[in-house]
What we know:
Helices cover 10% and strands 43% of the residues. A six-stranded antiparallel β-sheet has the order 1-2-3-6-7-8, with helices on one face. It has one domain (25-114). It is built from one helix and eight strands. A hairpin with a 6-residue loop joins β2 (52-60) and β3.
Amino acid sequence: MWYNLKMHEGLPNTFEEGPESIPTPEEVQSVFEQLLGEEKYENGRELEDEQGLYLREIIVPGEDGNTEYAYMRKGRYPEGQASDTAIHVTFFDKDGTAVGGHSVAKYVEGEWKLHHTD
């Protein structure tokens, strides 16, 4: 018996699934404000492509080390890739070494879902 097998051309690209809602820079800023409250912060990188904002970083200085919040839109970029549009927090020690972090917000079907860690 002979079987005709179709060869699969690799795994599906979960980073490029067609059009989806993209948050505006104002929406991203609003989420940062909800996460930070009254904390003072410094602006880090802010990068855009033809679809708009894809990376935004803010830094909260601390005497024991900085805290960085980073928004990245779903996709592949020179700075990295993201399987979801989300904001992550990374904690750094005094020497600038990352010592922990996690996701704090995710953009799902046009709405931000904040992850409460308390």
